[in-house]
Design brief:
It comes from Winogradskyella vincentii. It is built from 7 helices and 8 strands; from the N terminus they run ββαβααβββαβααβα.
Length: 213
């Protein structure tokens, strides 16, 4: 199972402000706070810098991503293939309300979105997003590739198995019905679409990211 990427959360307006190391801590500051302002960053230094500069420099603006990798590392990774779509999932809580979507990599035009589903996890959402993308591209007879930032979901798709530890319940029954359909589709369909890992450290957040954390 891949290690979840670390994020830091800057809260400009909330019950308490500053930089927080977990989404749970950040969520506690913005919950039920009218006009809360917050944003996630991939390093503590960047988050701290953003806090000092103020929200106007980051909220509602498209900041140019600057990779912390070396020139040699970036050259080895290369640029993303724009003949592609990207998929991603978002969840509030663990488990919690989950949704996923797929977008055109180059333009971020949304191609599909599902949810929110009750009692979901990010891994399940990432898995469903890939399978949805595979079915979508097969139906369109498209030669595009799929980018995902989840190695776990890629592994599940390859094994044709949703290896989640989440227990089934009446609350998440609709979600697991979708999971069962996804597994059935993988077992009954052949596809030529390549699923590729999105290199977040080199390219920034995946274009399908919901931008909520």
């Amino acid at each position: 199972m891949s290690k979840k990427k670390k994020k830091y959360y800057t809260v400009w307006k909330g019950h308490n402000t500053g930089v927080f190391e977990t989404w749970e801590d950040c969520k506690a500051q913005i919950k039920n706070f009218k006009g809360a302002q917050y944003k996630s960053f991939t390093s503590f230094e960047t988050a701290k810098k953003a806090y000092k500069e103020g929200s106007k420099e980051y909220i509602g603006k498209s900041k140019t991503f600057k990779s912390e990798l070396s020139v040699e590392q970036l050259k080895k990774i290369g640029e993303p293939n724009l003949n592609s779509i990207c998929v991603d999932a978002a969840v509030s809580g663990n488990p919690g309300k989950m949704e996923y979507r797929g977008v055109v990599t180059k333009t971020k035009k949304q191609l599909f979105i599902q949810g929110p589903f009750e009692e979901g996890t990010n891994n399940i959402g990432e898995f469903l997003a890939i399978v949805h993308g595979l079915a979508f591209l097969k139906q369109k007879k498209s030669n595009r590739i799929i980018y995902t930032d989840s190695r776990t979901a890629m592994s599940w798709v390859k094994k044709k198995k949703c290896n989640t530890k989440l227990n089934r319940s009446d609350k998440n029954k609709p979600l697991f019905e979708l999971v069962d359909r996804a597994i059935k589709w993988l077992n009954e369909n052949k596809y030529s679409t390549t699923v590729v890992k999105w290199e977040t450290k080199a390219w920034g957040e995946i274009p399908a990211d919901f931008g909520r954390k």
